[in-house]
Amino acid sequence: MPGNFFRPVNANWVPRRLAFFFTIFILFVAALLVRIINLGIVHGNDYAQFSEDNYLKERSVDAPRGSIHDRHGTVLAYNRAMFEVSMSRGNLTTEALRASLDRLGAILGADLSSHYQAVAGVRPRWKSHVLSRRLTLDQITAVFEQRFHLPGVSIEPRFRRYYPLHSTLCHVLGHVGKITTTTWERQYRAKDYELDDYVGVVGLEAAFEDSLKGQKGQEQIWRTNRGYILGSQVIEPAVPGAEIFLTIDLQFQRLAESLLVGQKGVILALDPRNGEILVWASSPGYDLNRPTQIDDPTSKPLINRAIQEYYRPGSTFKIVTALAALEAGWTPDRRVTCEHRLFLPNWSKPFTCLGWHDSVDLVRAFQYSCNIYFYTMADFIYSRDPRDAGYRIVRTARRFGFESPTDVLSREIKRRASGFGEKAGALPSLETLRGERGSVLYMGIGQGSVDVTPLQMLMAYAALANGGELLVPRLVRRVQSEQSDDAFSSSKIVKETLALNPEHQRAIVEGLTTAVNSPGGTAYGAGFLPEWHVAGKTATAERESEPDAWFIGFAPAEKPELVVLVLIERGGHGGKVAAPLAARLFRHYFDSTRKPTTIALQ
Ligand SMILES: [Zn+2]
Fold this sequence. Notes:
The structure is a single chain. The protein is built from 21 helices and 23 strands. The strands form seven sheets. Strands 2, 3, 4, 5, 10, 18 and 19 form a seven-stranded mixed beta sheet that branches. Strands 12-11-23-22-21 form a five-stranded antiparallel beta sheet, with helices on both faces. Strands 1-8-9 form a three-stranded antiparallel beta sheet, with no helix packed on it. Strand 22 (about 550-555) and strand 23 form a beta hairpin. Helix 10 (about 250-260) runs antiparallel to helix 21 (about 575-595) and helix 12 (about 320-325) packs across helix 15 (about 390-400). It is elongated, with a radius of gyration of 36 Å. Residues about 1-15, about 30-50 and about 595-600 have low confidence and may be disordered. The structure holds zinc ion (ZN). Zinc ion binds near residues 357 and 371. Zinc ion (ZN) binds near residues 370 and 372.
C-alpha cells in the first residue's frame, strides 16, 4: 500500500495556510481601497474632465492609388507607405502647443515654429495639419518614445506615389501633385478631395484620375483632449484605385530612351494592325519622383514632344504630295529630269534639290528623295486647277490625319484626354496659297507653313502601311478594379478610311522600300537588314540653325507589323542620324519577336 501516496495529515497545516491567504486578501482589498479613494476623492475632478473631453470623431481613410504596368505587367507606378507626422490643436493652450512644436522640431532637427499659425488655425480644432511626410525610422521611434510629452502630435502611415524607373516613360505616365488651396476651392472641394490630397497633374495620372484614385473610406477615432488617439474603428473601408495596363513594351521603351540620351527628340513605335503604341519616348525627360525640381526653359523637359511640339515634316511629307498627285492623274512611271535647280517665272529664288538626279520616276524620286520631282508634282497639282491653288495637297494631308488631334486615349476615357495637351497641327489655308504658286511647291516638300506633331506623322505612315486605315493610337489595354474589369480588346479603332487606290499605295511603298534597301537610297547603309523588308523615308527638315533629322519606316513592307519614327531636333541629316537609330529599334523588334529564346525579356 502506498502510504506516502496521500499527503500526511498535519493538524496545524490548514489554519496556517488559511491565515496566510486571508492576510494577502486583506492587503489586496486595502490597496484597492486606497486606489479608489485616490482616484475618486483626491483626483476626482481631473478624471471627470478627462472623460468629458475625449471625443469620438469621424475621419477619412486614404485609398491606395491604382498602380500602372507595361504590357507584360511590369510595374511603372505604385504606392509606397510613408510615415507622416501631423499635429492638431484640440484643446491645447497656446503655450502647450508651442512647447509641443518645439519639442517635435528638436526630434526632427527642423525649426517648426513657422507651422504654429497653420496648426492653430485648423478648423475644426481636432483636424490635423501635416508637418512632415518623410519620417525616418529613428524619428518615428523618437516621436513614439516621447509621445506623452508631445500633445497633439500624431504619426500616420500614408501612401505616396512612387515611380521605380524614375524618368522612364515620364511624359506618358505623368505625375501627381498636392492640391493647392486655390485649386481645392475651385475644383476639388466639391469632389470629396481634402486639402493635403494628391491628384494626377499630367499624363495618364491626370487622364485616369477618376479610375486611379479609388474611394476613400471612413473611420471613427477616439481621441483625448491632448490629441492622443486612444482607438479607431473602420466604418467604411477604402476601395483601392483601378490598376492600368498599358500597350507599352518596357524593354523596347528603354532601348528607345537610351538612344535619345543627350538629345532632344522623339522615338515612337506602333503596331499598324491595331494602333497599339509600343514605344513613346520624348527627350529630355524628368524624374517623376521629383517633378517640382525642374527648371530648364531651354530644354523644356516637361514638354511631351510627340504631341505638344510642332515640327516641319520636310521630306516625310512627300507621301502626301505623291498621293495627291497620283489621284490628280500623275502616273508612277512619269519621269522628271532633276538638274538640281528649278525656276518659276516671277519667283526670285530657285527651287533646289540636294543632288543632281537626272531622269527619275516615282520610285527613284523616293529612293533619292529628289526635291525637283516633288516640286514638279506640286506644280502639276497647282496647274490642274489654279483656282484650287494646290489645295488638294492640304485635303490629302487632312485625310492622313494632319491638322486634327490623333485622339489618343479617346476610347479609354471617352473624352479628350486631360493632361495630354495634344496639339492639332496646322496646314496652309486656301487664302494663303492663292496666287502663291511658290508656296504650293514648298508645301510639296513639307516646308512652308506645315506644322505637324510626331504622333500625327506616325499615324499617317501607319495608315499608308496598313492599306489606308487612319487609326486612333492606343495606350491602354486594360483597366482593372475590384468592381470592374475593362479589358479593351486588341481590335483597332478606325478614325477614318483613306480610300487609297492600292496601285498608288503599292507605288509609294515600293519607293520607300528602295530608299532603305537599294544603293543610293537615302537610308541605305544605315543598318537595316534586307530580310526585314523595311520601307522608310528620311527627312532633313530645315530649321533656323541646324535641320531636324527624321526617319519613319515600317516592316515588313508587304505586311507591316511595326512602324517606327525617330526625330532628332537639330540632329542634321535624317539618313545619317535618325535612320541608324531606327535600324537599332527594328533589330530589337525582329530579334525579340522572331527568336523564341529571347521572348522572355524579364
Ligand atoms: Zn533631285
